[in-house]
């Protein structure tokens, strides 16, 4: 899908929103050392060899016969077993075919683990409010790997992430590339010269994904999360995109609703051990 989406009623938009949300994870298959990303007419899957970063992101089986699907599931499991992966995930989204794939995954030992709620907004329809920055707060786009280390530090504090998880994101972003002319753009919010907030933009599948909005604990309740989101929405407009997609946390969901986002799709995540 190379077109840039302009309308929430476009029948191809659910698949595009799913592709963007899945594409964030697919980047690990592109950006981490030793990783693999595979896509054909039926499956998009990735392997990193790192815990919880291996699995199937999109499934479009061409034949919906249960016997065929069972065979393809077994073949896919064998691919991961051959790579000595202990644990994999398999995601079920709005474009998944067959529609009953979850039942067949459960028959193969998968269990439901979690879900991703995708929210969307037509940023032209919701209008643009001027971003009011506090006097000592500024937002800058990261342009090099050294500056991006601040994003890694904020992720650890803002999401209470383990250092190795934040390092995976950092290595992935650096390897893939970011900034002018790239799919990924990363923004840092600085208070009195100290990096306290972050947010990322992912241009993929004709829509603009907003990811990783976070603020360090001591800088919360000052509206920085909203300001970072508004700034990224402004950047999306400048880059010629109209439909924004994101997945909220419980903490941020009400913020995004106030900004004009609405629930749009659900991606369910299943997983299983292989050994």
TrEMBL record:
Domain N-acetyltransferase: 137-275
Stored InterPro entries: Acyl_CoA_acyltransferase, GNAT_dom
Keywords per UniProt: Transferase
GO molecular function per UniProt: acyltransferase activity, transferring groups other than amino-acyl groups
UniProt superkingdom: Bacteria
Protein name: GNAT family N-acetyltransferase
